[in-house]
Amino acid sequence: MTSGYWVLLALPATALAGVACERIASDYARRIDAGAAVDGATLCAALRAASTTVFLVCAAASLACVVVLILMRALGPLALARAGACMVLLLLALIDARCRVLPDALTQPLMWAGLLLSAAGLGPAPAAALAGAAAGYLFLRGVNAVFVFWRGHEGMGRGDMKLLAALGAWLGWAPLPEVLLAASLGGALVAVLRWGRQAWRATLPFGPFLAAAGGFGLVRGAVVQFPF
What is the value of pTM for the model shown? Predict the structure, then answer.
């Protein structure tokens, strides 16, 4: 199958999946703003509310494109799993951008899925995946502890730590410095463009940048060279 035909099917599936994720994230953020708990029940309620005709059409069209790709052997099991992981990352990024929360109902299943796929022989070696999950969480936990000691309050949420742990489970430990570098540079650039000289005082959610860097890592490999 030529790359042109692959793109013709993959891009519509990606766009339709993005529409579905945006709809779910909007409904979830609305419920959180209304006082709902940040838990799996609220997320499930948002999923049910999003199951309208538009959402079902988007999901059906995306599934049809994926099935065609599988039948034409243009999408293997690992690529299919990573596509699903990218959808979850997109949903997490949209939720964090709206209500500054990364729900455990998404980050923890994402991490366990990466570990289980690694154990099944898909993705990095099990030892690398386990080390990546541990390193991702512990590194950001350590950075946050230093920030608390220095400034007297936390600099990031536990959801960021769990998201990096999930990315470590999918990518292994080696690409994590690259993911963090790309996410940090992206966040710094957005802060400077938005607030200028006051950027160092601003706060913005880190989840969207982590999700974007992790998504590029899943789709295209390393973001930058590991030694750098």
Answer: 0.81
